[in-house]
Amino acid sequence: MATLLVASAIVFAVLDILPGNVADVMLGESATPEARQALVDKLGLDHPPLERYGRWLQGMARGDLGISVSYDTPVTQLIGERLAVTAPLAVLAMLLTTLIALSLGIYAASRHNRLGDVGVMAASQFGIAIPNFWFAILLILVFSVKLQWFSAGGFPGWSADDGGGFWPALKALILPAVALAVVQAAILARITRSAVLDVLREDFVRTARAKGLSQRAVLWQHVLRNAFVPVLTVMGLQFANLLTGTIVVEQVFSLPGLGRLIFQAISNRDLVVVRNVVMLLAAAVIVINFVVDVLYAVIDPRLKGHG
Amino acid sequence: MMGRALRHKSFAIGAVLVLLLVATALLSFVWTPYSAAELDIPNKLAAPSATHWLGTDSLGRDIVSLLIVGSRNSIAVGFIAVGIGIVFGAALGLLAAARRGWVEELVMRLADFTFAFPALLSAIMLTAIYGPGLVTSIVAIGIFNVPVFARITRAAANSVWAREFVLAARACGKGKLRITLEHVLPNIASQLIVQATIQFAIAILAEAALSYLGLGTQPPTPSWGRMLNEAQALMYQRWQLAVWPGLAIVLSVLGLNLMGDGLRDLLDPRLARRR
User: Fold this and answer.
1) Cα–Cα distances in angstroms (integers) from residue B51 to residues B27, B48, B114, B268, in the given order
2) Which of B116, B235, B257 sits opposite A128 (nearest CB)?
3) Among A161, A297, B112, B198, which is most exposed with the fewest C-beta within 10 angstroms?
4) Residues A137, B117: C-beta atoms closer than 8 Å
5) For B46-92, how does the pLDDT look when each residue is reduced to its tens digit (9 = 90+)?
6) Given B129, B213, B274, which is nearest A25 (Cβ)?
């Protein structure tokens, strides 16, 4: 909670106090004095900064984020609409990341120093070096331009009334999710591999083998549970990358998510929207990392005191 | 040392790629096949040929020349952004390790907060106020690097402070500043160099993403990220345009990462990851 408060203070300081005069930034040099005054009244800019900060915090607690100047719509509503794209995309990408990374990482560890391991490691070295937006462009090139299996971008919407529906919407998110997941998975697969290898060297694994458990049983019953702690840590840290990656990849596929919202807000100089979306993203990173901390205790038996 | 370095496969491959990147950037100052600023509209979107090895873009500019000049941008951003990170981050980390107590607590909590603001998010905030541009993106990436270096420096410096030779230096009456400069810094330098290589790669990726989004380098300065943005619009006409700049980014980042991994093994065998 304290972390969130400090993060909000940073966002507020950068976007509200640092620019000096918010009305000038939002309207540009050429604005008429009347237009400036109207904006100052609308946003309450003539009040002292501390009071404005307090009001913003109160608003956030109530779920009232103010009204977007460029869209003339409540920001809460704007963010809600865009989250319907960004949140499923992030979840889908995270699921894919976990699936690819864990299977490749465990496979590589079980084939330690053999061809499979070397192959996975070399591929992941490339994966880490690939910018996700370029990978997204390559996916469009292959699957949309050449094979024409997917559309090159756009989002039909989740409800059939808008001409979309569940499956068309999901289909529109597949390529973006793959683009995000492959790059993330490259890092996570390496972490998984080295975590599994570390656990395999532990004494209790030798004991388990010595008492006659098969390689497979040792892996599933003993190793994975213990190897999951470092993997989870990195997954938490990766979440920030995933969110910013989502912003970029949304641009590549022209998806109407939070990423597009924030870029439109930047070109419209709509600081109200920018401030709230940035705060939401920062808060998401903080909350996820908090959840990861809590999950440690659930996963690592030693932290619960009966290891 | 040289022999070991050359036998280390990932270091050797990485070093060759990095040298290639640096050489390309240097070359761009004295020679490019065509001027990267020269427009040749009648010759736009030309296919690869003997005159234009990789063809031309939508304004008739030579792709090879644009790629060569674009490398300058990546290197400059990497250098300055990592420089900002290492100067401020290492200073904060060294301070935290030397003073301990509430100073250390404060520095580390500050580092925690900035982690919630990745480079892209800082860049978005700064662009919303100051408008897009190269300087904004460098500052944003640099700010993101500060906590990274602060953490690593503090952890490494703390372990040096616990060693006997530091205790001996203190017994001789050396002050904290002198010990930091004479004993701690030289002993953690190799770890900082390794991290700098890796952050350099991350900075190149971040700059490319920002330029792709239109938040980084502005036209007419050539940059790999923006070339990809322009290429995406022309994908149905000339898909090759979307391949080359991406390949340039991948090879540079790959080179830096491999070199970083190799340096870690070579400079500090104790830190070498178990293989």
Assistant:
1) 19, 8, 49, 48
2) B257
3) A161
4) no
5) 778 777 777 777 777 888 888 888 898 899 999 999 999 999 999 99
6) B129
pTM of the model: 0.86
- State the Cα–Cα distance between residues B164 and B183, nearest whole angstrom: 11
Give the residues across from B56 on adjacent strands. Answer: B62
Vertex A93 angle, CA A92 and A97, to 5°? 120
Long-range contacts of A169-174 (CB under 8 A, 24+ apart): A170/A88, A172/A253, A172/A255, A173/A85, A173/A88, A173/A89, A173/A92, A173/A255, A174/A92, A174/A150
Q: Tens of pLDDT along A114-153?
A: 888 888 888 888 888 999 899 999 999 888 888 888 877 7
User: Could you tell me which chain B residue has the CA closest to the CA of A23?
Assistant: B129
Instruction: Give the separation between CA B81 and CA A296, rounded to whole angstroms.
Output: 34
Q: What is the ipTM of this complex?
A: 0.84
**Residue numbers of A between 177 and 196 with CB closer than 8 Å to B:** 194
Q: Provide the total of helices (H) and of strands (E) in chain B, helices listed first.
A: 11, 0
CB neighbour burial string for A220-229, b if at least 16 within 10 angstroms, e if fewer: eebbbebbbb
Residues of B with CB below 8 A from A198's CB? Answer: 274
| Distance in angstroms (rounded) separating the CA atoms of residues B130 and A185 | 35
Amino acid at B253: V
For residue A162, give the DSSP letter. G
